From TrEMBL:
Top-level taxon of origin: Eukaryota
Biased composition (Basic and acidic residues): 177-186
Region (Disordered): 20-45, 164-186
Gene3D superfamilies: BSD domain (1.10.3970.10)
UniProt-recorded name of the protein: BSD domain-containing protein
Originating species: Davidia involucrata (Dove tree)
Length: 186
């Protein structure tokens, strides 16, 4: 009886996880496209998820033009004027991870000082890519735990999807073998 209850509970968890993964992502809803549609609570939850905390905001507000201009970038030549790398609709660099891209978009919309700095620096003094590399190097201690959490969550989702695909395949194989047996008997 205990093993039956455990299996039943395991199936409930598996069903819940499968349902939650099959739902459309929040970012594909109109409220993610247009922040005015979001409730204040949902917006705060998203900011927290992407590491846009009060501590980060205060730290980022202390950035100046010199914070970026004087930052030594290894492996890249100083500040160049044009950047031919494609950008997203929010004009955030595509070579960022999805998490970094969303974080950057939230920061630009939440912290007007950061948006102004970016406008003054790119592309006149820094390439877009350089700007965001410098930014993420500066804020690493503030956002690394949030980014790591997002990576782990994504990995768990992938594992759940793989597990679901395996169980679907196993079910199919069992059904096929049962059908073959019935055909041989009949």
């Amino acid at each position: 009886l205990f093993s039956f209850q455990w299996k039943e509970r395991e199936m409930d968890v598996h069903s819940w996880l499968r349902r939650s993964l099959s739902r459309p992502k929040k970012t594909s809803t109109p409220s993610a496209i247009n922040p005015q549609h979001k409730t204040r609570e949902a917006q705060e939850d998203e900011e927290e998820l992407f590491g846009v905390t009060d501590q980060l905001i205060e730290f980022v507000k202390s950035f100046t033009l010199d914070t970026f201009k004087n930052f030594p970038l290894q492996g890249e030549q100083g500040a160049n004027c044009g950047d031919d790398t494609p950008t997203t609709s929010g004009n955030v660099q595509k070579d960022l991870t999805d998490w970094q891209e969303r974080h950057a978009t939230l920061v630009l919309s939440k912290i007007k000082e950061m948006s102004q700095l970016r406008f003054q620096l790119c592309p006149r003094h820094l390439k877009e890519r350089q700007f965001w590399r410098i930014y993420f190097m500066h804020v690493k201690s503030y956002v690394s735990e949030y980014e790591l959490r997002a990576v782990r969550l994504e990995k768990l989702k992938q594992m759940a999807m793989e597990n679901e695909n395996k169980s679907d395949t196993n079910t199919y194989e069992v059904e096929m073998s049962e059908t073959k047996q019935e055909m041989n008997v009949g």
